[in-house]
Amino acid sequence: MIFTPKIILRILLWALLLVGGVVLWFNSGLFVEPTTVNQRHQVLLKEIEALGKLELVKYRMQDVVEIERLSKRYLDLGIFRIQDGGDSRAVLIAAGEAVACIDLLKVTTSDIIDGDTLVIQLPKPELCYHKIDHSKSRFYDLKRGIGLEDKEFNQFIDTAYAQAEAQMMKSALEGGILEEAEEMAYKILLPLLNKVASRPVIIYFKEEDVIRLN
Predict the structure, then answer these.
(1) Which of 154, 162, 199, 203 is most buried (CB neighbours < 10 A)?
(2) What is the C-alpha to C-alpha distance for residues 123 and 118, in angstroms, rounded to an integer?
(3) What gap in Å lies between CA 18 and CA 148, rounded to an integer?
(4) Mean pLDDT of the chain
(5) Four-point Cα dihedral 191, 195, 198, 200, nearest 10
């Protein structure tokens, strides 16, 4: 076959048209690179991490704490000795709150199993914080021992608050705050994750055998 200038020109024109068409196809958005599983996981992970520490259940609580600090000083009356009345006593009516949450920043791509149904493993709920509200707490009975120095008395007061805070945490845990947080997680997270993933989602918690379906 003899390539005349006319034929060569025609071939070049077809080649330019072909290249131009391919370029336009890529730039027009008609060509879409398939989304990999890892990319989908990364997108979903960003949505989950954006929630951070998700607070699920809050307990508002009130507790009564009674503490004593016995004096070691005695009055020597010769025949016998009696305590000098230096005992300190406090009855604290403490108000505060305890909050359970899920730390979604702990979720990684290895916790996500892709498929027709998305399976996500979540960290167990935890007690995010518990604290005393000093503005709503008060001492019902407060007795300062005779001769008790300011520093010692302040430490005595701090001890009362510390015991109240510890009791508040214990009461919240025994009251089932973490179990309630799990229940709330299903109600809050499943609809959200279903929307983000655009497919059915199953969530379950680490160290938990039971898997709940939406």
Answers:
(1) 203
(2) 16
(3) 96
(4) 75
(5) 0
Among 212, 211, 127, 130, smallest CA distance to 177 is for 127
Number of H helices, E strands in the chain: 4, 9
Provide the residue ranges of all domains of the chain, joining segments of one domain with +: 1-32, 33-205
Q: SS3 for 50?
A: coil
Element (DSSP H or E) covering residue 177: helix 177-197
Compute the distance between CA of residue 55 and CA of residue 160 in angstroms, rounded to an integer.
Answer: 28
pLDDT tens column, 4-53 = 655 555 655 665 666 555 555 545 554 444 445 566 666 777 777 777 78
% of the chain at pLDDT higher than 90: 22
The DSSP bridge partners found for residue 124 are none
Q: What's the CA gap between 106 and 48, in Å, rounded? A: 10
What is the reported pTM? 0.65
Rounded Cα distance, 100 and 53, in Å:
10
The whole-angstrom separation of Cα 193 and Cα 50 is: 12
How much is the pLDDT for 214?
39
Which amino acid, one-letter code, is at 165? E
Distance of alpha carbon 89 from its chain centroid, rounded? 38
Q: Are strands 118-122 and 201-205 parallel, antiparallel or unpaired?
A: parallel
